[in-house]
Amino acid sequence: MDTIVFALLNGVIHGLLLFMVSAGLTLVFGMMGVLNFAHASFYMLGAYFAYTLQGIVGFGPAVVLAALLAGAVGVGVERWFLRRVHHHGHAHELLLTFGLSFIIAETIKLLFGNHPVDYRVPASLDFAAFSLGSQQYPMYRLLMGGVAIAMFAALWALLTRTRVGIVVRAAIYRPRMAEALGHNVQLVFMGVFGVGAALAGLAGAVAGAFYTTNPNMALEVGVMVFVIVVVGGLGSLGGAMLASLLIGVITSLAVGVDRSIADLLAFLGARSWAEGIGGLLTLKVSSLAATIPFALMLFVLLVRPRGLMGEEA
Amino acid sequence: MSRSWTLLLLGGGVALLAALPALLSAGLLNASIQMLIAALFACAYSLLAGRAGLLSFGHAAYFGVGAFATVHAMKALGGNGLLPTPLLPLVGALAGLVVGFVAGWFATKRSGTTFAMITLAVAELLHSLAPQLKGWFGGESGISAMRMPAWGLTFGSTVEVYYLTLAWVLLSLALLHFHGRTPLGRLTLALRENGHRLKFLGYDAHGVGLSAFVVSSMFAGIAGGLQAINNEAANYVVFDASVSAAVVLNSYIGGVGSFLGPALGAALMTFFGYAVSDATRSWLLYQGMLFVLVMMFVPVGLTGLFGAAARLKARRGWRLAVSVSALAVVATLCAAAGVVFVVEMLQRLCSHDYRALAAMGGSWPPIALFGRSWAPGSVATWLVPAPLAVAGLLGWAARRALVAPPVQPPEAAAAVDRQEALT
Question: Would you give per-residue pLDDT tens digits along chain A (313 residues)?
C-alpha cells in the first residue's frame, strides 16, 4: 500500500514537472502550428545554467537566473532564427529547431563534457518531509511539485484574468484577427516563446538538481513532451496538464507492476496459449514502462488527432 | 545542362565508383560502403520527405526492420537455395515494405505535423520495445550471422561486399529515379503541391501518400539489409532516434529538391564523419551548425548551389559566375576556419584533463593545436579567428553586392512591379 501511495505521488510530481516543460511548447504550438524541437533544450539549458551559477550566487537565485537566461535564449532563437525562415513554411521551421536542438546539445557536451555533472539538491533542502511506514519521502520532491503548481496557477491567472492573457489567447486561436485588431502578434509570439523557454528552463533548474543533469536530458524529456502536447491537444493548457499527469502516473505505476499480459489472460484460462506465443504477451508491464507513453500517443493520434482537450482543427 | 553532358557525368561517376576498390585502402573502402548505404537511405527518405512532402521523423524504423529481417534470413538460410547472399537485401525490402504498409496506412491518413508525430511515435515504440523482445531483436546484444559464399563469390573480402553494395545501390537509385517518371511519381509530386486539389480531381490522395510511404520504406529496408550484410550483425541501436535524425540532416543538407542531392549530402556527411570523427570529438556540432546554416541561408540544400551558379552564368555570364563562386568558397572557408579554431580551442580548454591540469598548476598551460602551442590567456590567441570570421563575412557581403541585379531605370522597375502585381 505504501509503495502504491509513493509511486502515485512520484508520478504526480513527475507529471507536474513534465507539464512545466510542455506548457510553453503547447502555447507556441497552438499559436503557430509549429512543434519546436528545441524546446526541451531550454529545459537542459536551465539545468546547466543553474549548475554553473549556484556556486556564484547560491541555489535559489541561481534557479531564478537560470530560468531568465533560458528565456533570453528563447527570445533570441525566435527573433534571429525562427522568424527568418517563417516564410519557408512549417516544415522548414520544424527542421530549423531540430538543428538548433542538435547544436545546443553538442555545445553543452563541448563545454561540460559528455557525462553527468555534479548538480545536487543543496543540503538545506535535502531532508525528509514525512514518512509512511518505513519509507521516507524527500522534501525536495514536494518542493518541485509546489513550484509546478504555483507556475500553473500563475500562468492560468495570467491567461484568463488579465488583459495580456486576452491578447495572447486571441493570438493563439485567431492570429489573423488579433493582428487586424491592431495587436502586435509578432511581439506576442516572441513573448510567449520567451516565457515558454523560461518555464522550461525553470523546470530544468529545479529538476536537474534532483534527477541527473547530463547532455542527453533534453532528448529524454523532449520526446515525452511531444507525447504530452499531442495527447493533450493543440494549444490547450488544461489538456497539457491532464496529459502530463496521466503520463507521469502511468509510467510511475507501470514500473512497479511485475505482471504480464499472459497473467491477465490466465483469468480466461489462456495462460499456456499466451506463453506459447511469447513475445509481447509474456513481457512484464514494468519493462514496458518506456513504451506505454508512445503507445498512448499513437492511439490518441489515430483515434482523436486533436488530442484529449484540443479544439477541432 | 544538355542530356549528353548529364549522361557523360553519370557514366563517369559510375566508372569511378566501380574503380574505387583499386584506388582505396581497406579502411576507406569500408567507409565507401557506409557512404553508399547512407546515400541510398537518404534517397529513399527524400522520396517521402521531398517528393511527397511528408516529413517523417522515424525512418530508422524501416531501416532497422530491413536490417533485422536480413540478418534473420542470413542466419536461417545460410545464403543457399533460393536466396543466396547477393539476393538477401530482397528480404530487407520485403520487411520494409510490409512494416511500411502497416505504419504508413495510419500515418498517411494525416499530414503535416500530425504525420511527423505518428512516424516519430512508431519509431520510438520500436526503439523502446526492441531490447525487450529478445526472440526477434536479440535483446541488447543483437543478432549476428555469417555471410556465406554464393555464385562463386566468398564475400570474405571487403571488395566483394563493396561491389555487392554498389550494385544494389545503383539499381535502387535507378528505380527510385524511375519512380519519379511514372504517373504515380507525378501524382506523388501533386500530393506535395496540393493534396486537396488532388482529391478534388478524383484521385485517392491517401493511396498516393501510402504508395510513397511504402516505396520509401521498402528502399530504406534495402539500405538496412545492405548494412546488415556489411556488418554481419544487427543491433537494436539501428532503431535509435539518432539514425532517424541523421537521415533528415543528410537529406536536407544535400537538398531534397533534386534527385541526387540527398545521396550526395549523405555521402558527404558520412565521409565527413569518418574523416573528422578521428580528428575531433566535436564533429556532430559541426554537422549541426552546417545543417542550421543550410536551413537558414540555402534552403534548397548544398546541391542547390550548383543550380544557383548555373542560373547566374546564364544571366550574367561565366566570368561573374566563376569569380562570385570562388569568392563565396574562399569566404566560407575563412569563416569556417575561424569557427573551427574557436570550437577546438574551447573543446581543449573545457576538457577534463586540461581543467585538472590547470587546477593543479594554478595557471593555464599552453594548448597544442594545429601544430603549434597557444597560450589560452593571451589576447593574441583569440585574435587569430577574428580576422578569419571578418574576412568571411566581408566576402559574403561582397558576393551579395556583386550578385544583386543591376539597378533598373525607374520606368522599367515600375513595369516589372505592374507585371508582378498582375501575376
Answer: 777 888 888 889 889 989 988 888 888 887 777 778 889 999 999 999 999 888 888 888 888 999 999 999 999 998 888 888 888 877 788 889 889 998 999 899 888 888 888 888 777 777 776 777 777 778 888 888 888 888 888 888 888 888 888 888 888 778 788 888 888 888 888 888 898 899 999 999 988 888 888 888 888 888 888 888 888 887 788 888 899 999 888 888 887 776 766 666 666 666 666 666 666 666 677 777 778 888 888 888 888 877 777 765 5
SS3 A117: strand
Please answer yes or no on whether A110 and B352 come within 8 Å at the CB atom: no
Strand-strand pairing, B367-369 and B372-374:
antiparallel
Rounded Cα–Cα distance for residues B34 and B11 (Å): 22
- CA A19 – CA A248 distance, rounded (Å): 10
Contact with chain B for residue A277, Cβ under 8 A: no
The whole-model pTM stands at 0.84
Q: Distance between alpha carbon A113 and the CA centroid of its chain, in Å? A: 24
Could you tell me if A110 lies within 8 Å of chain B, comparing CB atoms?
yes
Q: 3-state class of A129 per DSSP?
A: strand
- What is the spatial distance between Cα B95 and Cα B238, in angstroms, rounded to a whole number? 15
In sequence order, which residues have a C-beta less than 8 Å from that of residue A249 and are 6 or more positions away?
A8, A11, A12, A15
The answer to whether A142 and A129 have CB atoms below 8 angstroms apart is yes
Which of A175-179, A210-214, B209-213, B365-369 has the lowest average pLDDT?
B365-369
The number of beta carbons lying within 10 Å of the beta carbon of residue B381 is 17
DSSP for B344-407, written as a single string: HHHHHHHSHHHHHHHHHHSS---EEETTEEE-TT-HHHHTTHHHHHHHHHHHHHHHHHHHSPPP
The residue of A28, A83, A223 whose CB has the most chain B CBs within 10 angstroms, and thus the best one to mutate to test that interface, is A223
Do A297 and B289 make contact, defined as CB atoms within 8 angstroms? no
DSSP state of B49: I
A147 in Cβ contact with A199 (< 8 Å) = no
Q: How far apart are CA B264 and CA B32, in angstroms?
A: 12
Q: Tally Cβ neighbours within 10 Å of residue A118.
A: 7
For residues B72-92, one letter each, b for 16 or more C-beta atoms within 10 angstroms of the residue's C-beta and e for the rest, the string is: bbbeebebeeebbbbebbbbb
Cα–Cα distance for residue pair A164/A286, rounded to 1 Å:
45
β-strand pairing of A135-138 with A128-132? antiparallel
Nearest partner of B212 among B196, B188, B247, judged by Cα: B188
In sequence order, what are the beta bridge partners of B369?
B372
Q: Does A58 touch chain B (CB under 8 A)?
A: no
Measured distance CA(A271)–CA(B194) in Å, rounded: 51
Amino acid identity, residue A113? G
| Residues of chain A numbered 186-205 and touching chain B (CB < 8 Å) | none
Q: What confidence tens digit (pLDDT) does each residue in B274-320 have?
A: 888 777 778 888 888 888 988 888 888 888 788 777 787 787 777 77
Of B128, B284, B296, which is closest to A81 when you measure between CB atoms?
B296
Q: Taking a C-beta distance cutoff of 8 angstroms, is the pair A175, A43 a contact? A: no
Nearest of A26, B103, B391, A199 to residue A207 by alpha carbon: A199
Cell of A65: 537566473
Q: Which residue has the cell 486539389?
A: B197
Rounded alpha-carbon distances, angstroms, from residue B149 to B63, B84, B85, B155, B229: 25, 8, 7, 6, 12
Residues on B contacting A at a C-beta cutoff of 8 Å: 53, 55, 106, 109-110, 112-114, 116-118, 120-122, 124-125, 128-129, 132-133, 135-136, 241, 245, 248-249, 252, 282, 284-285, 287-289, 291-292, 295-296, 299, 343, 346-347, 350-352
Q: Which chain B residues are closer than 8 Å to A97 by Cβ?
A: none
